């Protein structure tokens, strides 16, 4: 159901490049130029703004607020379930609810990306919005110590709903922007961190106040439903789907032969095993270390507010450092700060770790999608590659926090999961570093080939 205003243009493959504007592709790679012709302006192909473009960006921002932003607020539920609502379950069992939700948010992209490429954008948005609303209202009906009810509603239902919307709502931005794409995508990504800041404040005050669990979740579900309705009304497609939909099997085969892309997937998988540990356990960690309950309720807010700043500024920083370099710095910093959680003991340490970790985590999320675009020479396959990358890397988020919860044990031995998450995150950062070296090697090789051709044709 795409608009008929302009047909989709398929881009020819281009060599990898490290563009300091993020995901901007060289004009010559997309448009062959002869001596007697001037390269067409990028503005002729991409509006780079306008009412339809910015309302679509705003709608995508709201989807991230209600989907990924709500999923990364699970730390509030982790604390509440552990201490009040699912007291018969272990921390590991409870964390499976949030980890499955997070895994489905990204891995369902393998399906939603394919459907998006076939022109089912509006169908995905409407079905995902309705399912998200339904799942949260069903969550409000779950009873104490009924683990399966919460698992089905929050872990499975809400995860599938957010997953149906996540990739299409991000990919639709590419219909309108190329030159500004990295900057716009970082703004869209900041919607999830803003959601992860607002939702914990709302949920902590509702769940732990006189309103209670059932009415508190219903109030949250009402807010989500209203915002998703606005998002569906704002977003519009501009390009027609390709005449021949992208073959995911063929795209996967190309990915297998694409060494830097495979290294990016491997890095994402390893890094995300440790990435979500602070987001799920930071509030509980603060409370168990004797920090005041009032501050602990806002510990996730501090982390996610800093996360929002990181996502917004990542686009500006990437313009100077390049997207691959910034991904390495952010993952390395997050791994070191995970190890730093071993020393969390008082209010000052919790504040410092929350602010710094949140900032670098926000930078990583802000550059993740632009990095995928940067490693996709044929933008007609962007939806397919995003789906494949989200799905494969998402397995890290699925197993990471349950492993950390199991290592934590019922005795709350905090240094063991912190050590595990830090080391595995650093291993992911190493994969990104190798990816960066491979990109540099391919770029040098490409320049050498060009020089040889010039020498052979004086």
Give the uncertain stretches in residue-range form: 1-44
Radius of gyration: 22 Å
In DSSP terms (H or I, runs of 4 or more residues), the helix count works out at 20
Question: How many beta-strand segments?
Answer: 0
Q: Helix content range of the residues, please?
A: over 70%
Distance between the termini: 52 Å
Summarize the structure.
It is built from 20 helices and no strands. The chain has helices at 27-30, 42-45, 51-66, 68-71, 74-85, 91-107, 109-117, 121-139, 147-171, 181-207, 212-234, 248-257, 259-275, 277-288, 293-297, 299-321, 323-340, 347-374, 382-408, 415-456.
Question: Overview of this structure, please?
Answer:
Helix content is 75%, strand content 0%. The protein is mostly helical. Residues 1-44 have low confidence and may be disordered.
Topology of this protein?
Elements lengths: L26 H4 L11 H4 L5 H16 L1 H4 L2 H12 L5 H17 L1 H9 L3 H19 L7 H25 L9 H27 L4 H23 L13 H10 L1 H17 L1 H12 L4 H5 L1 H23 L1 H18 L6 H28 L7 H27 L6 H42 L2
Q: Which features does this protein show?
A:
mainly alpha; disordered N terminus; 458 residues
């Amino acid at each position: 159901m795409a608009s008929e205003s302009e047909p989709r243009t398929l881009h020819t493959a281009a060599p990898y490049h490290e563009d300091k504007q993020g995901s901007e592709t060289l004009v010559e790679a997309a448009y062959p130029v002869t001596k007697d012709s001037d390269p067409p302006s990028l503005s002729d192909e991409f509006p780079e703004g306008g009412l339809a473009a910015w309302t679509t960006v705003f709608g995508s921002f709201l989807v991230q607020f209600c989907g990924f932003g709500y999923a990364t607020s699970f730390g509030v539920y982790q604390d509440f379930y552990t201490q009040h609502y699912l007291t018969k379950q272990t921390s590991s069992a409870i964390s499976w609810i949030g980890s499955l939700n997070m895994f489905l948010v990204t891995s369902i992209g393998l399906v939603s990306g394919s459907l998006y490429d076939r022109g089912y954008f509006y169908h995905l948005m409407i079905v995902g919005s309705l399912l998200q609303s339904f799942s949260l209202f069903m969550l409000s009906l779950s009873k104490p110590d009924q683990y399966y009810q919460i698992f089905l509603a929050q872990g499975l239902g809400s995860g599938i709903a957010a997953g149906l919307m996540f990739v299409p709502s991000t990919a639709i931005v590419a219909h309108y922007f190329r030159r500004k794409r990295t900057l716009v995508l970082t703004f869209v990504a900041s919607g999830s961190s803003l959601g992860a800041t607002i939702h914990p404040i709302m949920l902590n005050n509702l769940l732990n106040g006189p309103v209670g669990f059932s009415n508190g979740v219903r109030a949250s579900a009402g807010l989500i439903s209203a915002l998703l309705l606005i998002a569906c009304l704002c977003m519009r497609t501009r390009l027609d789907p390709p005449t021949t939909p992208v073959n995911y099997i063929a795209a996967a085969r190309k990915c297998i032969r694409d060494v830097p892309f495979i290294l990016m997937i491997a890095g994402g998988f390893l890094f995300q095993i440790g990435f979500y540990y602070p987001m799920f356990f930071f509030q509980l960690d603060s409370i168990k270390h004797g920090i005041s309950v009032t501050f602990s309720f806002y510990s996730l807010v501090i982390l996610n507010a800093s996360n929002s700043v990181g996502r917004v500024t990542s686009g500006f920083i990437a313009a100077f450092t390049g997207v691959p370099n910034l991904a390495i710095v952010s993952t390395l910093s997050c791994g070191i700060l995970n190890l730093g959680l071993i020393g969390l003991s008082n209010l000052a340490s919790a504040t410092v770790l929350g602010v710094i970790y949140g900032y670098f985590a926000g930078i990583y999320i802000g550059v993740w999608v632009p990095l995928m675009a940067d490693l996709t020479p044929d933008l007609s396959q962007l939806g397919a590659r995003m789906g494949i990358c989200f799905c494969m890397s998402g397995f890290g988020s699925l197993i990471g926090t349950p492993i950390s919860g199991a290592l934590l044990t019922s005795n709350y031995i905090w240094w063991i999961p912190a050590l595990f998450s830090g080391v595995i995150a650093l291993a992911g950062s190493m994969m990104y570093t190798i990816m960066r070296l491979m990109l540099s090697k391919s770029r040098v090789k490409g320049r050498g080939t060009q020089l040889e051709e010039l020498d052979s044709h004086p």
